[in-house]
Amino acid sequence: MQKRSIQRGRPAGTTTYEAEPARAFGEAVREARTAQGVAQETLAGLAGIERSHMGKIERGEHMPTLVLILRIAKALGCSAASLMEATESRLAS
Asked: Which H or E element spans position 21?
């Protein structure tokens, strides 16, 4: 019996998150950031993440962990709860 080789990573095109909540959260972050007149690069620096990663979060291509959500909220000067509330309202409409 031959052993199958184990391939690393996910197959191309698969995701491990639901796209709709990720997009709603990204929109909430982008709205809060632009309302304050903060550049994406500046927000990423304040949150301690790469600018490209922040772009993926805002476009809904990546769902951040709880730690990142808390860091983004702190960088925006708001609560994680307010970001979640904005996300929920987008999902409801």
From this structure: helix 19-35
